[in-house]
Amino acid sequence: MDKLVIEGGLPLQGTIAISGAKNAALPLMAASLLAPGVHHFTNVPRLRDIRTMERLLTHMGAAGRWNHGLRLDTTAVATPEAPYELVKTMRASVLVLGPLAARYGRARVSLPGGCAIGARPINLHLRGLEEMGAHIELEGGYVLVRCGRLHGTTFTFDQVTVTGTENLMMAAALAEGETVLENAAREPEVMDLAQYLQEMGARIQGAGTAVIRIQGVEELQPRGPHAVIPDRIETGTYLAAAGITGGSLQLTHCRPDHLDAVIRKLQAAGLSIQVGRDTLRVAAPEDGIRSVDVTTWPYPGFPTDMQAQFMALMTLGNGVSVIKEQIFENRFMHVSELKRLGAHIHLDGRSAVVRGVKRLSGAPVMATDLRASASLVLAGLAARGRTDVSRIYHLERGYEALDEKLRAVGARIWRERE
């Protein structure tokens, strides 16, 4: 197993190209199950979770080929099953439930795994499918689904769920009649999936708002090439990296319009950010980072997936910052590791009170989940001395070539075997 070694204290300078969004690519790959044929996706990041989803689809009978992007041929899919061995590390595996039920009328899908950042039950996915006519049983850690053709319904999510919205939207695309999803997720990844479904022939209105209407059709046709949207969380992570190291970066191939809440908070912290159509220029403040409060909310609010990285930045703030986590109840596991680097953080329920310090010092730390890993890398880039970040397989789930991109802009970072 590899670890990352960082010799911190150097300002980052240069240009970084942003990769495609994992959280957009995974539902697109699942959507390929809705229509037999070849689906072509470009700007797909080469990540551990993408490889896992590709293996899962291959297990079902699909054929994947990397040629100017990812081409998935779902013509021969005949095994509507997602076994535990393939999906235990990836929660996005649940996204195959809706497409399998809609196209095959049956599915056997292992309950999902993934990062340990709090309870993320799939009960809303299952309730929505039941209201569309599916019969669902839980047996031996698996979800068993049987149904005829699904039918439209009006379903209100008790809480906003991105994967729940995506799952039911895919299922409704082939259902009979109209489905209305209320309190739906509004994330750009949901909009990207809706766009591809429409390219396939689905009839969807309201994606990107809290109410989505889907008029079911008899069949869908594979389409492509469809370009996966840029990763807004990777973009935000590199913006924070420029700030915490006292550097300046140009980010290309990004979507600044997907990052309004993050950009506003970083500007409030003193970072200079120039916004282009698909570029961002960011420079750290000369007079130091200002402490800023932040609360995570569903999109278009400040994303929970940027909370840990923003906390790393706030460890060097000039005052006190209060960071409230409203999405997941167990997403402060990076706090103890940041404190090993010299951060001053006090936890109070779902709030973290961060009192800025003048400097961080390198130390061995251990990653606990994907975004916690990113926060430790950011802190290590700013810390004096050597920081060893272990368990970086979390990073490989969500950041494409992170160490290579950082080295290209001046970071001293490399891999070693643990």
UniProtKB/TrEMBL annotation:
Residues spanning the membrane: none
Reactions the enzyme catalyzes: phosphoenolpyruvate + UDP-N-acetyl-alpha-D-glucosamine = UDP-N-acetyl-3-O-(1-carboxyvinyl)-alpha-D-glucosamine + phosphate
Binding site for UDP-N-acetyl-alpha-D-glucosamine: 91, 305, 327
Catalytic residues (UniProt): 115
Assigned EC number: 2.5.1.7
Pfam families assigned to the protein according to its UniProt record, in alphabetical order: EPSP_synthase
InterPro entries per UniProt: Enolpyruvate_Tfrase_dom, Enolpyruvate_Tfrase_sf, MurA_subfamily, RNA3'P_cycl/enolpyr_Trfase_a/b, UDP_GlcNAc_COvinyl_MurA
Keyword terms: Cell cycle, Cell division, Cell shape, Cell wall biogenesis/degradation, Cytoplasm, Peptidoglycan synthesis, Pyruvate, Transferase
Protein name in the entry: UDP-N-acetylglucosamine 1-carboxyvinyltransferase
